[in-house]
Fold each of these.
Amino acid sequence: MQKKVMLGNEAIARGAYEADCRVAVAYPGTPSTEILETIARDYRNIKAQWSPNEKVALEVVAGSSVAGARSMAAMKHVGLNVAADPLFTFSYTGVNGAMVIINADDPGAWSSQNEQDNRHYARAAKVPMIEPSSPAEAKEFTKIAFDISEQFDRPVIVRITTRIAHSQEIVELGDKKDVPLKDFERNPQKYVMIPAHARPRHRFIEEQMEKLRDYSNKSHLNRIEWGGKKRGIITNGVAYHYVKEVCPDDSILKIGFTWPLPDERIKEFAEAVEELYVVEECDPFIEEHVKALGFKVTGKDIIPLLGELTPEIVDMALNGKKPLNDIPAYTGSVPGRPPALCKGCPHGFVFDILAKLDVVVNGDIGCYTLAVLPPYSAMHSQGCMGASVSMHHGFELARGDEMARNSVAVIGDSTFIHSGITPLIDIVYNKGTGTVIILDNRVTAMTGHQENPATGKTLMGEETHQLDFVALAKAVGVRRVVKIDPKNVEEFERVVREEVAAPEPSVIISTRKCILMK
Amino acid sequence: MKNVIFAGVGGQGVILASKILMEVAMNAGYDVKESEVHGMAQRGGSVDCHVRFGEKVYSPLIERGTADYIVCFELLEIMRKLDFLRPEGKAIINTLQIDPAPVQAGLASYPGDLDQWLRSNVKDVLIVNADPVLSEVKSKRALNIVMLGVLSQFLEFSDDQWTAAIKGMVKEKFVDMNLLAFEKGRALASGQ
């Protein structure tokens, strides 16, 4: 058996390949990006693409699934918010070829705007969710997800976290299965969700979830490792390894099938141990379920709700151990090293000007969000992809001309394509007068230089149509459109002053390629 | 079980160093795990990688107070990692100083007493200056390999095992330069 050290995300790509996945679609987002990059690099028989956003990605995958192909979408946790609309209704239609969603949560918010726990989506959307604890398991679980999807006619979510996506271990490589394309049958009762079709499908999926509850009880993805019976610990994801490390003598119920949870296994385990604990990152998802089953359990009263877990946090909570060395505390001051815009970054020219003009800046998601920090300190709102443009309009609705003549929205090229176009239409349609600056550095930079519809290249490296921001802005009705290199600082400042002052919508396309690009 | 932390600044090649050590350990028959941070760290922020190898490894993260070695590519960064060192652990530190953004912006200053403080307060500390080696091999990018060379003097693996891993993991045209950097790194360790 060939063995290879693999990143969790590489292992997932391998799992998709071995399961004979035919279509893989994503929008880049840390910590999920390397899944599709690995497919494009190593498994080129899979049709893989970046879509403009996660909603589109999931819908493309739903199409491929209904058409009969094993298909997979990958996204970060907040990406599933964008794709929640298709998730909830494609849960009703179910699948033809398997439909697998890789969801990467980011406890600790290493590279995200929040720490949301996407296990709640599985329950809310009535789809099964499985959770590996390591890269090697991530490969195996991904393969299993394809099988479960087809067996139960459900989309399946594989939930990983940053510590699985971005940790490495030895993975055993298997052979690729050969799964033929399934026939596509016209079946509007299953695939067209008018109310008359949706109601019976709702009954069907509730029945499927009952079957999956039974499956979860029997699945080897949920595993009891008996040790001492004094203490029993229910745990999942990477936290399982922390528990193994610091509580080697206790009994463990490892949850790999997260939704539906295995009630019978939980009861068997809880009844056999004297004290019951749940060690899980993020929300008390398992803990509340165990409590609802009627068991007394210790969880979030000793395990933090915030941030990611570490071995020492678990060691301290369960064993009262405070791992220390005897090095005295340094009494001087150690300056922090926050990430910053690179030296010569094209965004830097823009934020120097915006800081100088002292305008209100509605910001967005990308490298340029770092402009909130010194030396620029030039960002005043930011929330999710595209919100710069829509919030900018909201600022104007709330405060009128006084705000509109003293503020801008800034949004990157890829983020604008992801979710900035519809709010730009909103500004024009609803007679706003705001100024939107598209920070076009010719690449999706933040996540490590991925192609996007404005770069003229696909994920697979093929030449393609290059989206034209000027033509697009004009097409939605913006009459004042300026494209300019931000290195022309004086000219750029004049343009910003003029466009902000103009009592009609305007778009400034700040075009200069990322300093890290060759 | 051995626990090794590589620490430095985005762009210094911390992740590649950890990958090479993993490869060496795996080929020597050990179970290995590693944990790294992507994303924001690439924009000049602090970067670290935890590497663990032994008969059976569970956690990809090293527990505080249990690192056998911390290999730090930049002087200031060691100050964020010292609580990971086990009491008998060894800190290997490059003297290079890179001003973080707040220092560049004049909002903070780079402490001037670190070298002295580390020598007085950390039991087992090896402070090296990789600069002359980097000048000699004519590549600043070989810093990670030089530091691996220093570390290699304290681990059980043979020259051949290191050489094989380096050959397999750096670009072909840079193999000779990196092997030289590694050898010079080994010499740095014994020269102190």
Note: Chain A has a mean pLDDT of 97.
Amino acid sequence: MSNSKRINLQQAAEIVRDGSSLTFSGFTIWRRPMAVVFELIRQHRKGLHLIEVNGGSHTEFLVGAGCVDIWESCWVGHELYGKYGANLSRRVANKEIIVEDYSHAEMLFRFAAAASGAPYAVTQTSLGTDLHNPEYDMLGRAGLRDGKRIAKHKYQFTEDPFFGAGSQVLIPAAKVDVAVVCAQQVGEEGTVRVSGQYYSDPEVARAADITIVMAEEIVPEEYLRREADRNTIASFEVDYILECPLGAHPTGMFGRYDVDGAFLKDFYGKTRTQEGFDDFAKEWIFGLDHLSYLEKLGWPRMLGLRANTALNYSTGVKRGQ
Amino acid sequence: MTMGNDYANPEEYGLADLLCCAASREVQDNEIVFAGTGLPMVAIMLAQKTHAPNLKLIFEAGTLDGRPPELPTSVGDARCEMGASRSSGLHDAFSIAQRGYVDLGFLGGAELDEYGNVNTTVIGDYLEPELRLTGSGGNPDINSFAKRTVFIMVHEKRRFTKNVSYITSPGWRVKKWPGGEFVHRRELYGFAYRGGPSAIISTLGVFRFDAQSGRIYLDTCHPGKSPREIADMCQFDLDLSRVSGETLPPTREELRIIHEVLDPEQIFIPRVKPVHPVREPAAVAPSSATSAGVNVLPGGSPVVQPPS
């Protein structure tokens, strides 16, 4: 039995089971593991519980495809390229999905708590808002707060017992089964080097029970260990690795390629309806694998997105009007 | 302002220019400013290049004291961190904010009430939503942690409402749970109280809040708008007793910096050519019927569309 952590795209998606709770690396439309997301859709994964610091285009794909029963987060959209999550919005209105709202900092602190083995975090954000409205505890309303993976309460409030600083909000640790991290480099033993802003990747990788890293390239472990201070996630925090160049497309990756804004705009424009989503998925996901997806995108498009190695972003991509 | 009074004539600028300059003038030198995506980012960088050269810029995704040479399209952008003091992640950005470092944050919203409560979550009943929007993002966080916040909003009567559908971001009078009765935010925040919304820059005027009551009042009208006209575009009774005049237009130097230095690609701020009719600034006004929300990012900022 080899102790290799290497797997392929199909195997990565198979680790995520129907009903798993799942989280991702990245930030809105940056460094999302899209190739794994597309494979989950091809495999018709059902009943997923997404718990995310923030959502983005990957959320919209999974939700549109009907893979998600519960979405716990704070925001979804495509930034400049699509102003809200039309698929999530449609499915919430149809009551096909449970949405549990927290604030961005609350979600981040929930992952930080889980990553440090604490059952909850304490914060002073969002006091007085409807985020804290007890009527809007949607997992509670659905009878899903069993105190096992899903916390018994959405929030608890307390007064600071140490310094008398007033109202404090207690928020439950984000307990997740699987994190899929998309990064520039991973070593053969699992050491991850993220270049650029690392968003909430260290927290999500540590919080999840199983962490899969999909990297642009698998590099010799010794190479990363020569400058350990530049690494982001330690080898033993990672359970599986796979190499998948351009695997974040249409989201962007610091130093490698820009966001494909035209693709996201097209997706946002065409998937306001379920029929629209299904057509889009038929064209871009089903019947393709990662290589044929890249072939369909074509070299000219991908070269336009390619980052300048001195600047870490593309100088050729069209961003404005 | 250090740039003199070389104000542009109305045909030389668009609404997005006006909002950008009004927002920029809310920034004071040496402040630590939390930047969201879109127009606020241009406004803050404009301040950095004019009257506030020592401001410190924080991007929510994890860039501290950023000085990006090229305009990022979002706070996760690879363009954020070049020239920054430190590039890290959200844990740093939010810890720093909660610690109390942030002087000013720019935010956006779909609905606003007279106490500055803002909704970016849902239109209609939360449990039976007419339209689900983006969600909170970092809007309530920045609004809870910063000393001052400034909102940039599209002004429509349905958005300037008596009661917002959902309080996403806390204004001056907020709900005390579990009962939900309204109290002054000072009562809730305890030691964490630092301030709250200080200005609303809408597409019609600039609004501020009474220090005692926390109620909104009209401060300046954008060129060509009257106080009465603006009051008619609010569902609540707008206090017109403190109108100080007209919103100052952009100076020619500000317009040059916006269009030649900061956003030459017209990502957020379209260039208005003299003679041509003023184009609806794509960057500011969501147009479709479904766009109940100015796009609100995790940074909580309004994004304005070509698309978004």
Note: The mean pLDDT of chain A is 97.
